[in-house]
Specification:
The chain is of the alpha/beta class and 442 residues long. Helices cover 47% and strands 16% of the residues.
């Protein structure tokens, strides 16, 4: 069934849904995601007594400050002959456990703080997933829907040219993120190979024709479902209903994974609105509808959703848009017992506290949506071997690896009597801190 979703990959709805959800919440954000991630890191580090255990090593500062911040502009000639200048970023946060790894985001609200936060999350995420990568992230402040295909390609190639000495198969490996896809990764690969002899592994999330991995496009959504199913078992959630915010790449594959398992998806939203059907939405039919209409709105198998999907009555909520969707001002409205974070940072720290008091279990982004970077690692392995796996093998490996991470987090949360987010950070930061000390100061 996954090839059905491929039909809408890179479509306008895939790109716009995240953007509009971000726009909707932009004016209500009080703290940047980087403020939240720094506060959480400092709180966890304090509880771990890192400075006392490793005196003089500046462990906490190493977590808080990126290794390298690359900020620049590129000028792109538009099709009408005019030139436009775009703000560009690449933040390399930490490579203690392996080369830098992280996506490239094209979005009109991208700024340096957001990219720093995303890079820090990647460092924590790769450590928790137990793959040999560090954390990085890139971004361009742009609305990709406002550019022609030729303009986008010129932008991507110029972005790549500036970063030629900073990215590479053994140094920093970009991947798709919001507003980008395998198409942009193919352009990066092609531009990079003009200047370097070893190029195929410079990016992941590539099209299959240029060395991509089967299962990579669906990996993030699949990982969300894999961790969700484990949490359902732990919470004894039988005949659970699911609501999904965002129907781009992550949300659509997560919806399909639920549907294939007989788990009822009762509400879905995108940039244009939402739909609901308490008997369960036909996800295969909805994907066909989105392919034709570029939105979930108007699907004949469901009714229009008037209320905010975050407050829709359901057992499980999958926020699969951008950060800051669930905040202090709307957390009380959430009716779900379980939240599985398909997006990066969809629940703010202030909302975390409210939801914890309500008894809501949250599977954090650094665990739940790590399927993408896990299969990105598999892609690099296949590129180096020159031998490519069947999709069944990729999915089986992903299931084993992400559920193993889930069990480690669950056991740590029980041991510490803490929530899953704190347990996840504890495990990842402990692993990185020990590696920092073992590698030595130089």
């Amino acid at each position: 069934m996954s090839n059905i979703v491929e039909n809408i990959k890179g479509s306008r709805v895939d790109r716009l849904s995240d953007q509009a959800i971000s726009d909707r919440f932009a004016q209500t954000k009080i703290r940047s995601p980087y403020d939240d991630v720094k506060k959480l890191v400092m709180d966890i580090a304090s509880n771990m007594h890192l400075e006392e255990r490793y005196p003089g090593q500046n462990i906490v500062r190493r977590f808080l400050e990126p290794d390298k911040v690359i900020q620049f502009t590129v000028s792109v000639q538009r099709d009408n002959g005019t030139a436009e200048i775009f703000d560009c970023y690449r933040v390399q946060h930490d490579d203690t456990l392996g080369c830098y790894k992280g996506g490239i985001r094209f979005h009109p609200e991208v700024d340096l703080d957001e990219v720093k936060a995303l890079a820090t999350w990647m460092t924590i995420k790769t450590a928790l997933a137990d793959i040999p990568f560090g954390g990085a992230k890139g971004g361009v402040r742009i609305d990709p829907n406002s550019m022609s295909l030729a303009e986008l390609e010129r932008l991507v190639r110029k972005y790549t040219q500036v970063l030629l000495n900073d990215i590479g198969p053994s140094s920093d490996i970009p991947a798709p993120d919001v507003g980008t896809s395998g198409r942009e990764m193919a352009w990066i690969y092609d531009e990079y190979r003009k200047h370097r002899t070893v190029a195929r592994g410079v990016v992941t999330g590539k099209p299959l024709e240029v060395g991509g991995s089967l299962g990579r496009t669906a990996a993030t959504g699949n990982g969300v479902v894999y961790t969700m199913v484990e949490a359902m078992h732990d919470l004894d959630l039988k005949d659970a209903t699911v609501a999904i915010q965002g129907f781009g790449n992550v949300g659509s594959y997560a919806a399909l994974g639920c549907w294939e398992r007989g788990i009822k998806v009762v509400a879905v939203s995108d940039v244009f609105g939402g739909i609901y059907n308490n008997q369960g939405i036909d996800i295969e039919g909805l994907i066909h509808h989105v392919h034709e209409k570029r939105s979930v709105v108007g699907f004949s198998g469901a009714d229009p959703l008037v209320e905010d999907i975050l407050s829709y009555p359901c057992d499980i909520l999958l926020p699969c848009a951008l950060d800051g969707a669930i905040r202090e001002d709307n957390a009380d409205k959430v009716k779900a017992q379980l939240i599985v974070e398909g997006a990066n940072g969809p629940v703010t720290l202030a909302a975390d506290e409210i939801l914890e008091k309500k008894g809501v279990r949250i599977i954090p982004d650094i665990l739940a949506n790590s399927g993408g970077v896990i299969v990105s690692y598999y892609e690099t392995v296949q590129n180096r071997q020159g031998f490519y796996w069947e999709e069944k093998d990729v999915n089986e490996r992903l299931l084993k690896q992400i559920t193993r991470a889930y069990y480690r987090v669950r056991d740590m949360a029980q041991k510490q009597k803490s929530d899953f987010r704190k347990a996840s950070y504890y495990l990842a930061m402990e692993k990185i801190a020990r590696a920092i000390v073992m590698r030595g100061a130089q």
